[in-house]
Amino acid sequence: MEQVVKRIDAGFSVAGQLEPGDLPQVRAQGFASVICNRPDQEGGAEQPDHLAMERAAVASGLEFHYLPVASSGATEAQGQALKALLERLPKPLLAYCRTGNRSARLYELATKGSPETRQYEVVIMGGGSAGIAAAASLLKRDASLRVAIVEPASEHYYQPAWTLVGGGAYNIDDTLRPMASVIPQGAHWIKASVSAFAPGRQLVLLSDGTELGYQQLIVCPGLQLAWEKIEGLEDTLGKHGVTSNYRHDLAPYTWALVRALRSGNVLFSQPAMPIKCAGAPQKAMYLSCDHWRKEGVLKSISVEFNLAGPALFGVATFVAPLMKYVEAYGAALAFQSNLVKVDGPGKTAWFDVTDAHGNVTRVQKRFDVLHVVPPQQAPDVIRRSELADKAGWFEVDPATLQHPRYPEIFAAGDVCGTSNAKTAAAARKQVVVVAENLMALRKGLEPPRRYDGYGSCPLTVEKGKVILAEFGYGGKLLPTFPMDPTIPRRSAWFLKARLLPWFYWNGMLKGREWFTDCASK
């Protein structure tokens, strides 16, 4: 039995999802009864239904009862139902759900009654770029608002600089600050994570069992890096020449590998879209090649960029200027080539390559250095909620950033199921739209602001030069400055490496809405 059993008291324990084959071992551990709290079909076909579990339980000499509890949380009636079962079922009992959290919460409800719900006017899920900026923008508009930020992390990162760290152009220590230092004055930080939504009751349920009530909710937890979807990757990250600028602790390792390499094969990967900062995978390649060129070793290094998609960049305007750098560095492009497996000690990577007819072939490639960008998805708590769209991202109106069925719920940042680029620059404009529209909603007014899909991708094509790509929905160019955006510029490098980090910490996270068409003093 793989699931860890957590003892609540002498007569009651909880566990995550069990399988029929686990039940003989459950009986062997001394349990007399099993309660299933996970609704059938919640996890899809791979989840055994309660009837199959009941047959296996009876065959193992266990009492079995089905008391399903939705992910939105237990009700008073379900708490009373468990209380009745506790009185009649033989002990000790083992209750299970997907993770065990619902079962534990239900037991608390059955034995202690319902805890007091903590009420806020606005609850913000997530303390990343979008969450902190949204809180700051709201409190700039109304300092009396009762705002709670739900965020489990103790540290806050400026992630756009990790590519620069991997290219030897930025100090990793400057990308990190304590979370407490960026929480806006007047906001209440709740150091926990959201485990479920109950939008019908205007509640979020936290990982510690607490319920938070809200008048408005802003959902901005970012996205989830799915390292585990690439076989063997997690076991070799940070060693054997396998690295990624998508992790704070690995970006310095990227630079160490780049500096040390004098010859060999280097592979860069890019998974299927959407991902955060879609230009970052190739920016890692450009900065590495620029260093090797300046060191005079580029001709001794074979560079290949493997993209799961069919194009170098999603906005056609920027493909030609980027191709000039690809050709200048002598890099090979492998389109429709998706990284699926890594053997770090064996210095081998496998890619699923799709041809023009849709046929997939697995191709093995050797490497000395492998820069990996993992597949990315919305967090589990979003994907399994009723607030998600069909692709699992948070469903919003692409203009107002409101949920179509729950207008009191907004979203910002990478979790949004919108077609814009997932960048900090996009979040910077989104939070202003959310703040303005949320405040209008509180006054009974129509949402006055519309998001145009703005995103920015400063493409570091060499150390000291950047192509500043700014665009919105449909690939429409939205340049901030009246200059040709396809030309690499030193001024854009200065913007990327110096001004934007300063503005992030001292402007965006402080509610200063410069260059958003809605600047506040």
From TrEMBL:
This is Bifunctional protein tyrosine phosphatase family protein/NAD(P)/FAD-dependent oxidoreductase. Gene3D superfamilies: FAD/NAD(P)-binding domain (3.50.50.60), Protein tyrosine phosphatase superfamily (3.90.190.10). Residues 80-141 form the Rhodanese domain. It holds the Pfam family BLH_phosphatase. Transmembrane segments: none annotated. It comes from Pseudomonas coleopterorum. PANTHER family: SULFIDE:QUINONE OXIDOREDUCTASE, SULFIDE:QUINONE OXIDOREDUCTASE, MITOCHONDRIAL.
